[in-house]
Design goal:
293 residues; mainly beta; eight-stranded antiparallel beta sheet; globular
Length: 293
């Protein structure tokens, strides 16, 4: 969500529901009581979880989506309009144009529709060279050597972030959602919207997370901590209509889009995913094999 227009979205009385656009939609068996067996293997090192949330927080019945990625099997890519041609694209367009298997928002952005709201660099390209004092998490990958993990979410309040961010070629700063201590960092709020997030689990796997249902970030943190996904920490990457996740593998594809809820819940169809300037994508390493799904 562009920072300058966030308030406009939050004043909109409506929830934008994007229908799944698929050659054939991915569907795991319906979870029962958040069973850990509800992961569907898509390929070696890649699994999809769909978790139905009990309706304590929202009247929406779309599942929370978690794409679990083994960084030993998949490469991470930061793609930005400022580095790659100058224009925003939908998540599907980013994936198709650059051969990505999956794509999620990298960050919110400023009114110029290019610059991230937090620090963001990719090798020699700097999209935003300023550390945002409000943001407490840094997604870091493409390490300069083997002394650090291949990917991690650096906690500004629990790690030596000033040293660690220089150990990686790609760094993206965003709001912290879940701390390294495993606790939510947001206060309760009446503002509810779809959420895209990136997390790490306790074994070092990356999590692309999306909720089409509108939640406050406080409530969504509690949901993530209750799910059998082994989450370690997480950061917020986008909210509202522009929060999206796209996946295409083995001839099947699906898009998950977003919306807002304030006051009365309304639903209407929007056939087009919102174009966004900055995304994180994944490509398969040579030793990752399809599962036959």
């Amino acid at each position: 969500m562009a920072a300058a227009v966030s308030a406009v979205f939050l004043l909109t009385l409506g929830f934008i529901q994007l229908p799944a656009m698929a050659e054939e939609a991915f569907r795991a068996e319906q979870p029962q009581n958040h069973r850990s067996g509800d992961w569907k293997a898509l390929a070696d090192g890649l699994a999809l979880g769909e978790f139905n949330i009990r309706q304590t927080f929202s009247i929406c019945n779309h599942p929370t989506i978690v794409l679990r990625i083994d960084p030993q099997k998949y490469n991470l890519k930061l793609l930005s309009a400022s580095e790659c041609g100058g224009r925003k694209k939908t998540a599907k367009e980013w994936a198709e144009d650059f051969g990505m298997i999956a794509v999620i928002n990298a960050s919110m952005y400023l009114p110029d529709h290019r610059t991230s709201t937090g620090y963001m660099k990719n090798f020699g390209h700097v999209n935003n060279g300023v550390i945002n004092p409000r943001f407490g998490a840094f997604l870091a990958f493409n390490p300069v050597n083997d002394s650090v993990p291949p990917v991690q979410i650096i906690d500004r309040y629990g790690q030596d972030w000033q040293n660690l961010i220089h150990q990686y070629q790609t760094v993206i700063q965003n709001y912290r959602m879940i701390s390294l201590e495993g606790s939510g960092t947001w206060a309760p709020s009446d503002q509810k919207y779809s959420i895209a997030a990136v997390g790490m689990d306790k074994t070092g796997r990356l999590l692309f997370i999306h909720s089409q249902c509108p939640f406050s970030v406080y409530d969504f943190n509690q949901i993530l901590l209750s799910l059998p996904i082994g989450i370690r920490n997480a950061m917020y990457v986008e909210g509202g209509p522009e929060a999206c996740l796209y996946l295409k593998i083995n001839g099947k594809q699906q898009c998950w889009g977003g919306g807002c809820e304030t006051g009365v819940l309304k639903a209407y169809e929007n056939q087009t995913l919102q174009p966004i300037p900055n995304v994180i994508g994944i490509t398969r390493k040579q030793d990752a094999m399809d599962s036959g799904f």
